[in-house]
Amino acid sequence: MSLALRAQLLLFLISLSSRMGLSRCLDMLATDGFFTFVASRPQLACAAFIIAEPSEVISLELSDVSIDCSAGDFIKMFDGWVLKGEKFPSSRDHQLPLHQRYTDYCSSPAPGSTSRSSQNVAMIFFRVHSPDSRFTLAVKKLHNPFPCNIMSQSPEGSFTMVIPHQRRNCSFSIIYPVEIRLTELSLGQAKSNELSPQRQVWSGCSGSGDYVELLGGNGVDTSQMFPVADLCFSLSGLAQMKIGCDNSVVRLVSSGNYINRVSFQYRLLEHNELPKTRENSLDNFCSVE
Ligand SMILES: *[C@@H]1O[C@H](CO)[C@@H](O)[C@H](O)[C@H]1NC(C)=O
């Protein structure tokens, strides 16, 4: 990831997380390596967001830890990201129950110092009271042959998501307002041949176990986002949609009966393509087209 992009993503995270009081000691790590945190003063709400390539998962390991758990210090690792209290991947889409996604260095009787993420994002939270508290975090990236639930590093790119005979749902999340172009969609049950915007005016795809939904919203939990369009037929042609939200998602819902596959391209919306009012109401939803 380029430095400019990393800075852009970090600024975005800071703007979101300052609302939850996490404005200091916030960092974004996109490379492998060893990172040592040394507190110069009490630091009560720190976090580092870690991101890898879409086809990687992240291994985290703590060493040389000098904190005082009995004084209320903590270090916790999380399998995913938490922003504004919302989680990515959504609890609904993650294969582990929420409590198993946290690794707590201070928990007794089973303190944890290693964590392996299920997708290309992970994070670490910590609180230390005494200056000179310190720890080292080793970040390693490992190949993931079947990525499911991905956070894009960049506001433009392309991706192909495949769910081979698995009953699970996978989301590709782009935390920018973007235009998404579906270039290929292949689902088990081919139905008809038209794009159906707005689930409200059509019974939608949820009756057919396999479909793609485009979601828009201003947080990271896909279960809290609004449907922009559903597609439940195979297509090879263009379906494109502008989503003027902070977060745009392509979600593939899979019954496990078929091999489902969706390919898409996305690009950042220009300033003049953004919706004029960005009130967060249902009537005035962030979709622009
Ligand atoms: C996938 O999502 C659909 C619709 O949101 C839901 O009905 C289904 O239970 C989900 N499947 C799994 C395995 O969570």
TrEMBL record:
Residues 1-25 form the signal peptide. One of its GO terms (molecular function) is corticotropin-releasing hormone binding. Residues 150-274 form the Corticotropin-releasing factor binding protein C-terminal domain. It is found in: Secreted. Residues 23-142 form the Corticotropin-releasing factor binding protein N-terminal domain. GO terms for biological process: hormone-mediated signaling pathway; negative regulation of corticotropin secretion. Keywords: Disulfide bond, Glycoprotein, Secreted, Signal. One of its GO terms (cellular component) is extracellular space. Belongs to the CRF-binding protein family. PANTHER family: CORTICOTROPIN-RELEASING FACTOR-BINDING PROTEIN. This is Corticotropin-releasing factor-binding protein. It comes from Seriola dumerili (Greater amberjack). The lineage of its organism: Eukaryota, Metazoa, Chordata, Craniata, Vertebrata.
